Amino acid sequence: MIDYKLIESQVDKILGKDSSGHSTEHVLTVVNNAKQILDNLTEECNSDIVLLACYLHDVDDYKLVGEEQAETLANTRNILSMLDISQDAKSKVIQIIENMGYSKLLKGIRPTTIEGMVVSDADMLDGGANGVIRCLEFGFSKSRKVFDVNIMPVLEMDAATYRTIESPSINHFFEKLLLIKDVMMTSHGKKMAQKRHDIMIQFLENFFEERHEDCSQWLELLNKYK
């Protein structure tokens, strides 16, 4: 039996103090998302592989540990070494983590197993109300503006630009978050993503309408995402 309490404690040592939207709280939300998708799957799927990858998916995130460690997955491998599971299971978890994430998607890299698809969807589903908070948290951690009416989002994004862009937080909705519902890989994930999409649309609509500047150009752009 996999000791998930041990895993959570190890993840918390790495992410517990994070204030950029990649904390243990985010990890637990992703785990919960995955459980909901698993409950609605018709395909055969190894739930332990899914949950392991969910718990570990951010412990080597390049935004937190740098590009070099992100490539080696040092924290992931270290935690997996503490578990009494097969080498095959460890390899499957690592493969999922190596093939998920939005910057990987922009390179055309996507999970190929049902387990990987569930984990990818569960991670990207941390949008909606949580997504609004996480987006702002990340921006604050990088001392970025929340909004600048004169800085429009980059709508044609490649992986290199995504990894280096430092635009205001509101732009991130147009550059990534409002695109999530169209890249879901499971049927239940798509349903969950649509609900979160609608929440973000409503938030942004109110945000622009309440601003003191003329945000008509932003509202016009937002209508294209509805």
Rounded radius of gyration (Å): 18 Å
Mean pLDDT across all amino acids: 94
Fold-level CATH name of the largest domain: Cyclin A, domain 1
Contiguous uncertain segments of 5+ residues: none
Give the CATH superfamily of the largest domain. Answer: HD-domain/PDEase-like
Structural class based on helices, strands and sheet pairing: mainly alpha
Shape field: globular
Number of domains: 2
Number of strands: 0
| CATH class category label of the largest domain | Mainly Alpha
Continuous helix count:
14
Proportion in helices? 55-70%
Distance between the amino and carboxyl termini: 45 Å
List keywords for this structure.
single chain; 226 residues; mainly alpha; Cyclin A, domain 1; Methane Monooxygenase Hydroxylase, Chain G, domain 1; 2 domains; 14 helices; 63% helix; globular
List the helices and strands and how they pair.
Elements: H1 4-15, H2 24-39, H3 47-56, H4 62-65, H5 67-72, H6 74-81, H7 87-98, H8 102-106, H9 114-124, H10 128-141, H11 159-164, H12 169-175, H13 187-210, H14 216-223
Helix pairs in contact: 2-3, 2-9, 3-7, 3-9, 7-9, 10-12, 10-13, 13-14
